[in-house]
UniProtKB/TrEMBL annotation:
Domain DUF4469: 135-231
Domain Bvu-2165-like IHF-HU-like DNA-binding: 6-127
Coiled-coil annotated residue ranges, if any: none
Protein name per its UniProtKB record: DUF4469 domain-containing protein
Gene3D superfamilies tied to this protein: 2.70.50.70
Amino acid sequence: MAEQIILNTDLYDNLLTERKGDYTAKPRITGTLYNTDIAARIVGARTEYQHGTILNILDMADSHKVQAIAEGKSVVDGVGQYLVNVQGAFEGEKAQFEPGKHALGITYTMGKLLRETLKLVKVVVNGVAAVGPVINTVTDSTSKAINGQLSSGGALVLGGVNLKIQGDDPSIGVYLTPTTEGAAPMKAPVVIANSPSQVIVQMPTLADGQYTVSLTTQYSGSRNVKEPRTYTFPIILIVGEGGGGDSESPDEI
């Protein structure tokens, strides 16, 4: 019998309504898994295949899926269905695709296996979250991409709650950290705007790759807390080729 999956969530004030006591729940994101981690999980299930063999198959599957999607094919797996889409307006019948004006994105529809699994998840609501910084959106001011592409050295706009960078601890600030193991966080050198609901910083020079963004502050409304609090945005962000923009539909990623 499969082990019960438990998803822990916390309650946050619903910013879309002024009604007192109205909250939204957010899952606790407890980590990020890559193909090597998935391969390790499969090995842990006592398969006869070696970790390296499984990892190689997963990587090859990713490569072929990506190529098929880019060719305009619909790709369906246990996670979902993926279709390429074109974003941006075209003016006139002879208009052509312009990279600076248009972009390719992905439309995602949840797959049956994932849909059926989510029905079996036990959701635990742990009450109102401790008051601290929460990043809801990350916007790259250069490309206007939301929760996706980053531009090295450009301005980064963080939207959320209790974000104001405040306090005397040397750790406070906004950090971008490569997702590679052991990589050191890089602190944003300049704070352009600083308020509880929005922080704008200048990003450091970033090499192409994948990054997480985090914010550390002692701000807590009327007074600073003694120990700094850190919030790490759960979505991986991309610098350089391979990044995607935001979506106009909840079914797009």
